Automatic annotation (TrEMBL):
This is Cytochrome P450 protein. Coiled coil: none annotated. It comes from the Eukaryota. It is found in: Membrane. Keywords: Heme, Iron, Membrane, Metal-binding, Monooxygenase, Oxidoreductase, Transmembrane, Transmembrane helix. Its main location: membrane. Pfam families: p450.
Length: 395
C-alpha cells in the first residue's frame, strides 16, 4: 500500500489482491466512483460508466442480460462480414510481392469502430455511424482543447432511437424469441435489445424507468468504453504474436489463454479508481471518508510475487488451467475489473477479439516490421506510442 499525492489530493495505491477484493467485491457498498465533470459525461455518455447509486443499479439490471453470450453470438456473422471485407483489402494489396505492411493499431481502431457501430445500431447502421463519428470527433477535440464542446447534430441520436423503435415495431411478429433462443433472421442489435428491456414494466414502484435519453447515453458509453479498449487488446495481441511466432501456430488451436496473457501484460485499462463513501476499515487500516484509492491493474499484473519469476515474460501457458489458477491469488487477474461494476462489455470484447485474431491467423503469418519500436505508453489507456507496424504474409 502506498500513499501518493496528485496535486493537493492524496491517493492510496492498493496492490494487494486481498484488499482489492475487499474494495471491489466484499465491501463495494462503501466505495464509489468519483463524480465525473459535465464535459466528461458529455463525451463518454452519462451511462453505466459514469452513473452512481440507484440509477446505476437500475441501468445495470436492465443492460447486463443484453450482453449475455447467447445474444452476442447472433452478432458473429455481422462481425465476420466487417472483418472479411477489411481483410480482402490486405490480400489485394499483397498480390504482387506476397507481403504487406499494416499499421495495426489504427487499422484495429477502424475495425472495432465499425463492429461496435453495427453491434449497437444494426439496421440503423448509417445513422448510428454518423452519431459515433461526431462522438469520435468530440473525443479528439476535447483532448485538444480543455473547454466545453458542443457539437450541433448530436441530439439527432434520440431521433435514431425513435426511428429504430418504430422499424422494430413494424417487424414485430416476425421476430419472436423461441424458448429464449433468438432466430437467425431477426436483426438483433444492442439498441433493439435495450429498447425491449427498457419497455418491460418496472418490477417495483421504486424502480426508475430507463428513458429514451438514457438509452442514447448508454449507446455513447458503449462506443467510448468499447472502442479503444478492444482495439488496444487486438493490437497488443497481434504484437505479442508477431514477437513470438511459435505461438501463432498454437493460437490457431487455442486463443483464450493467449488473449488472457495479452490482457495481463498489456491491460488496456491500467487502473481503477474509487473513493471511500464513508469511514471504513480495510486490512486493519482506518480509511477516512473521501480517501481516493487507486487499484493499479498494470502493476498487479506484473508483480513477480503473484506471477512468479517470469512475470515479465509472455507465457500464455500460465493460463492453461484457467484464470483463477494462473497466479498465486485468484483475484490477481482483473483486466475487466471485479465485482458488481466489472466491465459489462467483456463478452463482446473477447468475442470480437477471438474472431478478429482467428480470421487473421487463418489467412496470414506475421512479424514485426523493421521500424517497429516497442513503447507501451499510457494516455488514459495503454497503447503503443509509435504505433504497431507489422508485416503480413499469405499462408
Ligand atoms: C478489452 C476490452 C475492454 C477492457 C479491457 C475493459 C475494461 C473495463 C474495466 C477495467 C472496467 C471497470 C471500471 C471500474 O471498475 O471502475 C470496465 C467497465 C465498463 N466497461 Fe469495459 N472494457 C473493455 C471493453 C468494453 C466494451 C466492448 C464495452 C461496451 C460495449 C464496455 C463497456 C463498459 C461499461 C459500460 C463499463 C461500466 C460498467 C459499470 O460501471 O457498471 N467495455 N471496463
Amino acid at each position: 500500500m502506498f500513499l501518493v499525492w496528485f496535486g493537493s489530493t492524496a491517493h492510496l495505491i492498493i496492490s494487494d489482491p486481498a484488499l482489492i477484493k475487499e474494495i471491489l467485491v466484499l465491501k463495494s457498498e462503501f466505495f464509489e466512483k468519483d463524480e465525473p465533470p459535465l464535459l466528461v459525461k458529455r463525451i463518454e455518455g452519462n451511462g453505466l460508466l459514469n452513473l452512481k447509486g440507484q440509477k446505476w443499479a437500475q441501468h445495470r439490471k436492465v443492460i447486463q442480460p443484453i450482453f449475455h453470450t447467447e445474444n452476442l453470438k447472433v452478432m458473429i456473422p455481422m462481425m465476420a462480414k466487417s472483418m472479411e471485407e477489411a481483410l480482402m483489402k490486405w490480400s489485394e494489396k499483397m498480390s504482387n510481392i506476397g507481403k504487406v505492411e499494416i499499421e495495426v493499431s489504427d487499422w484495429f481502431q477502424n475495425l472495432v469502430e465499425d463492429v461496435i457501430t453495427r453491434a449497437t445500431f444494426g439496421s440503423s447502421y448509417e445513422a448510428g455511424r454518423a452519431i459515433f463519428q461526431l462522438q469520435a470527433e468530440q473525443i479528439v477535440h476535447a483532448a485538444e482543447a480543455y473547454h466545453k464542446v458542443y457539437i450541433p447534430g448530436y441530439r439527432n441520436s434520440e431521433i435514431v432511437v425513435e426511428s429504430h423503435r418504430r422499424s422494430k415495431d413494424e417487424e414485430e411478429g416476425k421476430c419472436e424469441l423461441s424458448g429464449g433462443v433468438v432466430r437467425e433472421e431477426c436483426p438483433r442489435d444492442l439498441l433493439e435489445l435495450m429498447i425491449k428491456a427498457a419497455d418491460e414494466p418496472p418490477q417495483s414502484k421504486e424502480s426508475l424507468a430507463v428513458t429514451e435519453n438514457d438509452i442514447v447515453e448508454e449507446c455513447k458509453t458503449f462506443f467510448f468504453a468499447g472502442k479503444q479498449t478492444t482495439s488496444n487488446l487486438l493490437t497488443w495481441t497481434a504484437v505479442l504474436l508477431a514477437m513470438h511466432p511459435q505461438w501463432q501456430e498454437q493460437a490457431r488451436e487455442e486463443l483464450g489463454m493467449i488473449l488472457n496473457e495479452s490482457l495481463r501484460l498489456y491491460p488496456p485499462a491500467v487502473a481503477i479508481i474509487r473513493q471511500a463513501k464513508t469511514n471504513v476499515q480495510l486490512g486493519g487500516l482506518h480509511i477516512p471518508r473521501g480517501t481516493e484509492l487507486i487499484i493499479p491493474i498494470l502493476a498487479v499484473h506484473h508483480d513477480p510475487v503473484l506471477w512468479h519469476h517470469d512475470a515479465q515474460e509472455f507465457n500464455p501457458a500460465r493460463f492453461a488451467t484457467g484464470a483463477a489458477q494462473a497466479a498465486k491469488h485468484p483475484m490477481a487477474f482483473m483486466p475487466f475489473g471485479l465485482g458488481s461494476r466489472r466491465c459489462i462489455g467483456q463478452n463482446l470484447a473477447v468475442q470480437q477479439a477471438k474472431l478478429a485474431i482467428a480470421m487473421i491467423l487463418q489467412r496470414f503469418s506475421f512479424e514485426l516490421a523493421p521500424d517497429y519500436a516497442h513503447a507501451p505508453s499510457v494516455v488514459m489507456l495503454l497503447h503503443p506510442q509509435h504505433g504497431a507496424p507489422l508485416v503480413f504474409r499469405k499462408l
